[in-house]
Amino acid sequence: MTTQAEKAQILAHLHAAPEILRVVNVWDAVSTRAVAALPETRAIATAGHSIAATFGYADGTIPLDLSLDMLARIVEAAGDLPVSADLDAGYDDAGETVRRAIGAGVVGANVEDRLRPLDEAVAAVRAIVKAGESEGVPFVLNARTDALVRAKDRPVGESIADAIERGRAYLDAGADLVFVPGVLNAEMTGELVAGIGERRISVIGLPGALSSTEYGALGVARISYGPMTQRVALTALQDTAAELYRGGVIPASTRALN
């Protein structure tokens, strides 16, 4: 059985590998098992937005205890696969939140800065790294900057410069990757990779964004899909329900994944 420290090392190696790491976000035990069953799956990533929605909460408002309970269930369902969690902004104490997440079996996480003052955001990164060290787990931090998604009233060039400044500071403080969410075209992605580093950028796959292959060719280390995977599943559910109301039947192609 793979130890937690070994899982963390595996996740770090996947980020550093020449091929972009594709992680398909999950939100509960059954979605985890469905994704983990695919031979292409190398790691599991959770979507905080999707976990919150599962329990009826808006994104970023789910109580930490409830989120940690689901994370533990996801870790169990993932088996030997490393699990990277979405821990929102780290709650009140990013270091303590990560320590508790490690207790649930998680080996990496996204933690967002929400454009807090840079010194505060860097202090949170240091606290997360210290928490991993104290727990004996080389915790893989995918430090998220909201420079693009929370500052839409300024020129894109300024937001990219801010993301680069923050990203470099987070890496210097011990983060493994810098997550820059947003619909990034090739030019924007190239600027971010040049400014922060090759295989040090993490992106999100959104409608209108580049493909994972295109991002990988530009030097991106990881792509995830956030709440989009749950939206795909819920779209299929709603469309099926509408078809059943019209007198249809369950498709013969349906697989017994639950």
Describe the structure.
- With 258 residues, the protein is of the alpha/beta class.
- The chain has one domain (4-228): TIM Barrel.
- The protein contains 10 helices and 8 strands.
- It has helices at residues 4-16, 29-36, 48-54, 64-78, 94-103, 118-135, 156-172, 186-196, 212-217, 228-245; strands at 21-22, 44-45, 83-86, 108-112, 140-144, 177-179, 201-204, 222-224.
- An 8-stranded parallel β-sheet has the order 1-8-7-6-5-4-3-2.
- Strand 7, helix 9 (212-217) and strand 8 (222-224) form a beta-alpha-beta unit.
- The longest helix is centred in the middle third of the chain and has 18 residues, at 118-135.
- The radius of gyration is 18 Å and the shape is globular.
- The two termini are 25 Å apart.
- The model has no long low-confidence stretch (mean pLDDT 97).
Characteristics of this structure?
TIM Barrel, 8-stranded parallel beta sheet, 8 strands, globular
User: What's the SSE pattern?
Assistant: HEHEHHEHEHEHEHEHEH
**CATH fold annotation:** TIM Barrel
The percent range for strand residues is 5-15%
The strand line-up of the biggest sheet is 1-8-7-6-5-4-3-2
CATH architecture: Alpha-Beta Barrel
Radius of gyration: 18 Å
